[in-house]
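re: ur question from yesterday

yeah so i grabbed the chain u mentioned. its 201 aa long if i counted rite. heres the sequnce exactly as i have it in my notes:
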Amino acid sequence: MIRVEDRGAARLVTLYRPDKANALTQLMLAELDAAVARAAADGVSVLILTGRGKVFSAGADLDGMTQGLGQAPEWEVLSRRIAHYPGLTIAALNGTLAGGAFGMVLACDLRVAVPAAQFFYPVMKRGYLPQPSDPARLQALVGPARARQIILAGRRVTADEALAWGLVDVIDEDVVEATLALAADALQADPAHVRRMKAMF
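ran it thru and got these structure tokens back, copy pasting raw so excuse formatting
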């Protein structure tokens, strides 16, 4: 269950399952992948991922986990599509980020979080492997020792720690507005110029 809306040159994709802490089902992963693909095809310069309610995402839906969702290839497919998005991608984290939802957030170019957000990836205690690309992407942001703290030791990180570590770029109560402000130059630029700039990374 996701919702898609345009904010000028930006496209906002919202996880819309607040009663379940935006836990991701296999259908939601497919919907997200399709929404990202459509935004790329439409030439959207700035793609924003956010959530409804007080949690960005609790990760995988628990009922789905009993049916193999934890190791489904759709997680990595979605992360790869976001990582290769031709425009600017920003995660507007309206709350806590946990588990498999890390993949799509790590694949974004930038991350904005509310002050109350927490970050944890409890794959060790739950007996699952992280998504294949997540350790390298996390390590590139926070360094190897801190990446190991999050993935191997299951450390729960606060928003202030995440900012100091480089896991998030901005902390703000209104993450969508802060994200739009952060993307202001890209939103005003020619979409082809945004794509050329993104390709340099």
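noticed a couple things. Residues 84 and 107 are 9 Å apart (CA to CA). also The two ends are 31 Å apart (CA to CA).
anyway ttyl
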